[in-house]
């Protein structure tokens, strides 16, 4: 693997990539990448840290966007076993995991205040393609600022139609749906990581019988700009491939 080329390509995207002095987990043959901070409380000091693993591992930057400060990376390595510590109550147990023996594609870069990495649901070679792949199918483009969806991290907030709002309000008034306050969205739509906390949240059964989540008021997250919604917004998650732990055997990444 040409690590110098990787470092140069990250630099072309305005990103800092350094080589690790040791692997992050039990198997030194695994390709591993993490996000670290030189100053614990300074998000601007974040950088990517790489352990290349076995010489037959392949990692290639396939496309980048200098303005977005993001890039698309493909990783390929054989299936390999490794063990990670997982907290269960007051105990920490070691859990066996394996790397997939196929190609994986990732979007990495800067999003608002901090660095991020996420696994893409399909192969992409440009940052624009990666953004399209991650967009939830419910998200529609709109030229109207009133109807336009808003994103915070992995969550999209959609503008419901008038009939949908009326059905939701009637359900709340009739005590068929209940407003929860100061709730993490990830506790309702399962998602690990730092919480995105909504002032008000409702789980509502729509007219078609499907369960939907709506929020109103402020939505706050430690690493993102807070949002404010005067009216109910439907919440949907992006199409990122979820990982139980770090993408490459390091710490949890959000």
Please sum up the structure shown.
Helix content is 12%, strand content 42%.
Can you walk me through this structure?
12% of the residues lie in helices and 42% in strands. The protein has helices spanning 3-12, 127-134, 162-173, and strands at 17-19, 32-37, 46-51, 58-65, 70-76, 81-88, 91-98, 104-111, 114-119, 150-152, 155-158, 179-184, 197-205, 211-221, 224-237. The model is unreliable at 250-254 (pLDDT under 50). The two termini are 27 Å apart. By secondary structure, it is mainly beta. A six-stranded antiparallel sheet has the order 10-11-15-14-13-12, covered by helices on one side. Strands 4-5-8-9 form a four-stranded antiparallel sheet, sandwiched between helices.
Sum up the overall morphology in one term: elongated
Strand order of the largest sheet: 10-11-15-14-13-12
Number of strands: 15
Mean pLDDT: 89
Number of helices: 3
Low-pLDDT windows of residues: 250-254
Observed structural traits:
six-stranded antiparallel beta sheet; 2 domains; single chain; 15 strands; four-stranded antiparallel beta sheet; disordered C terminus; 12% helix; elongated; 254 residues; 3 helices; mainly beta
Topology:
Blueprint: H1 3-12, E1 17-19, E2 32-37, E3 46-51, E4 58-65, E5 70-76, E6 81-88, E7 91-98, E8 104-111, E9 114-119, H2 127-134, E10 150-152, E11 155-158, H3 162-173, E12 179-184, E13 197-205, E14 211-221, E15 224-237
Parallel strand pairs: 1-3
Antiparallel strand pairs: 2-3, 4-5, 5-8, 6-7, 8-9, 10-11, 11-15, 12-13, 13-14, 14-15
